[in-house]
Design a protein that fits this description.
CATH superfamily of the largest domain: Winged helix-like DNA-binding domain superfamily/Winged helix DNA-binding domain
Radius of gyration: 18 Å
CATH topology of the largest domain: Arc Repressor Mutant, subunit A
Structural class: mainly alpha
Strand order of the largest sheet: 1-2
CATH class of the largest domain: Mainly Alpha
Helix content: 55-70%
Low-confidence stretches: none
CATH architecture of the largest domain: Orthogonal Bundle
Shape: elongated
Length: about 130
């Protein structure tokens, strides 16, 4: 399911949640999909089971998952869940990019020009 190379700068549980949210935004996880058991995911990722327990607890508090007693943990049902997660992630990435560019002293015009150039380049490479 997930392959993660952990970054020491951020807590592991947050990185795992982020990867699950990305999988949901990309469509490789869908509402209603069953997640691996906590033990299974801990073994797969090579992390402490307590870390996965925290991941599942945090995701349930965020409204991303629901645990059905005796059946497991599932991505919560709902048409708007994927839109909400994707929108949240897109906004975070865009805000981080803009804040970093501004911190480097770039003007609005420089940022807009760079984004257009990079977007045009990416579209040409994929098209």
């Amino acid at each position: 399911m997930l392959k993660i190379e952990f970054d020491k700068a951020q807590p592991i549980y947050l990185q795992i949640i982020d990867q699950i949210k990305k999988a949901l935004a990309r469509g490789s996880l869908n509402p209603g999909d069953k997640l691996p058991s906590q033990r299974e995911l801990a073994l797969t990722l090579g992390v402490n089971p307590n870390t996965i327990q925290r991941v599942y607890r945090e995701m349930e508090q965020m409204g991303l998952t629901e645990t059905l007693r005796g059946q497991g943990t599932y991505i919560k049902q709902g048409d708007d869940l994927v839109k909400m997660v994707r929108s949240e992630m897109v906004n975070t990435v865009a805000e981080n990019f803009i804040n970093e560019m501004l911190a480097l002293g770039c003007s609005k015009e420089e940022i807009m020009t760079l984004v257009k150039q990079l977007l045009d380049k990416s579209i040409k490479l994929k098209g």
